[in-house]
Amino acid sequence: MCRKGRRGPLQGDSRVAGRYRIAIVGSGPAGLSAAARAAALGISHVLLEKTDHLSDTIFKYQKGKHVMATPSQLVLRSDMAFEAGKRERILDVWRDQAAAGAIEVRYHAEVKAITGAAGDFTITTTKDDTILAETVVLAIGTQGNPNLVRCPVGEGAVVQYQLDDPGEYIDEHIVVLGTGDAGIENALGLAADPEQRNSVTIVNRSAEFATAKDANVKALLAAEAAGRLQVRRETTTAAIDKGMIRFDTRDGEVSMRCDRVIARMGSAPPRAFVENCAARFEDVEGKRARVAGTGVEFSSADRVSYPVLSPTFETTTPGIFVIGALAGYPLIKHCMNQGHDVVEFINGNTTLKPADEPILESRFRDLPGTRGVDEWLEFLRTRITVLEAMSPLQMREFMLDSEVRFYRRGAVVFERNAPGSSLFAIADGSVLVQVNPSDPSVTVPIACGSIFGEVGLISGRRRGATIRAAEDSILVEVSRQAALKLQSQVPAARAAITRISIERQLLQMFGSGLASEDLGEVLDSAEIIAVSAGKPVITEGEEGDDIFVIRSGSMVVEKQVGGKPVFLSYLPAGSYVGEMSLIAGGRRTATVKAAIKSEVIRLKGDAIRAVMAKKPALLEKVRRDMASRQDLNAFIEAKKDSFSGVVDLYSSVSNFLVEQGVGEATDVLLIDENLCVGCDNCEKACADSHDGLSRLDREAGRTYAHLHVPTSCRHCEHPHCMADCPPNAIHRGPDGEVFIDETCIGCGNCQRNCPYGVIRMDAVPPKKPGLLSWLFFGRGPGPGEPGKAWSYANAKPGVERPKKAIKCDMCSGIDGGPACVRACPTGAAIRVAPEDFLSVSRLERGEG
Q1: For the 4Fe-4S ferredoxin-type domain, which residue ranges apply (predicted)?
Q2: Of 143, 411, 618, 709, which one's alpha carbon is 20 to 30 angstroms from that of 663?
Q3: Rg for the chain (alpha carbons), in Å?
Q4: pLDDT tens-digit map of 585-619
């Protein structure tokens, strides 16, 4: 049983007299391990803890929580024992070992200030006790400074930032915000016992779980599949009121009952306190201000950045060391090793290498040169832009999840159309992008320090070009998970990746001879804006000259005609709008709103105007795009009376299709009910082309007027099914098709994540006899999907048929294209790209 600290041999009550060699602030895993090493070496020390018990962070874990001991390949050096197990057991073991090891602990000793210099620090507590120490080790973590909810919170709404005992909550509707390890574990604990009758929902801003351990993610998905809780992906909180919560989702705003919100959205370092440690102050205009260059420096001005540390954990203030979560290493085993090592360093051990040294040595073994691990880490960090803001400690953890390779000149890094979602960074040398598949000599260089592969990272698409090493090069390949974690935990890296991806999107979209150096001012003022479904980025009649680039999602353009909104066109990701007011002046001529939850890049009109003044070719391109839109507006105005009924119908049909998910599709199957005779040839052809399992349900789905949207894959621009595929079995093909390969393990995550119900889990039936055998001899079940009875009767005895995910792959690799379209005798089935179909301009061509 876990016991709180009590006054005894571990704690002194009187004020400290004399001087300690080491004062350790915080008794979490890192601080406790440091104190244990000091005790083992006979070094005078004191461990300062603000509460009445050891390791407050672990103590505040929810009751019965299973604590993991990851990473498994890392050796534990600490004098304190640690292995995976229940929170209560771990705390009991630590308390007993601390007592046996003669660790000197002072409880109720919350530190409010640290002054002095190396060899002569004075630590003052909130009770005005003073402790003198030669060195100070800060192991205070970040849990006392949680990230707060940013949405409005109404009076009487219950929002808490910690969960002590999940068993205390009965028959409540509880929403957990955040899908890191803490949030997932809280949600699982609240939903574990069905007799508690809790309705638990966990909210994730994205479609992926970038910062959680794999075991936790799998447990969460299993609980979701079992119906014990609900996972809301791509969702943010709009408002919290008493008894109710409102979300912004990919499909618009949603409200649901909520008795309690538990926010576990991470935390930030207690920056003000740490920066002021051993700082000097002066009066500036009557206010106390810290003297520049004194105190502990942080890596950047961002709220979630960490202190600048040396490889021995020393800060920019000599004699003050930082370990644990405050150093950017949140895993318990890492923290405990740091506690052990920092005392060894303070005690003069200059030969000690970190516990992860052998693992990293193996990472760098095949690279040219004779650098050591620390030298390689610093080489990579200083040479690669997105890694510059990382500390040496963060670099070590990052490289445990990444690979670094040497490529000879001319070696292929990856081929065009190859699957892949990793990010590459160039530490030495450069690469060439083959932009013309038919002429490999047409290339674009990417220089040392930059990145490539960001398209696969952001969209999941196959590689867009073949890339070769232009010279002998050293490249770091960052897995998708590591890249997402990097962006989540290092703001400067996220900003660098975002800037590079925006720059390349603009260069590809605008062309016109633009180069990177032309876009500096545009990128400096660019802003990424998240737009909920149905929300406008441009409203007809308003003033403004900014341009909006659709980064992800899609937009629809509407114009008021006769007092009613008329659907003009659909704009997929990669399009831009807003140029008409920029070039021609005047107010906005149409409304542009999100078809689904989207992201846009807002480009300042003045910055774009300055580039166009220097680049006439860009100005001419924008004018051409503007002219086509002006022609469309003129057509609508001219036809608004004589053609109003047709325009209204087309507008209604287009809005219906967007509501059915066409807004995020890249290829969609539509059926004209006026032509369909219900023969089911489309379904039969689909089954016969795919091992006897149809990927299409013709009768299912919604219909408006004569247009039917059957249950069939939309091949979304950002596929939801890809988000949580453990074996990474879902890919996008060269023609945009989203397909599932043979590595599928049948976990069902894709089926649960698909909002359109187009994925099924089924076992492949036995191979059928050929069509002629059925036609002439009556063998087999005939065309189409065989019935269950035939499949069971013809299955191999004793051989279980494992289920796998089944979905449309657009008949990739089959001559003639999609079988459903080819088999339709009346031409009722068509496959279309939304941007080609959803435009009122089709009426002008007589296609309405």
Answers
A1: 667-699, 736-764, 802-835
A2: 618
A3: 31
A4: 888 888 998 888 888 999 999 999 898 888 888 88
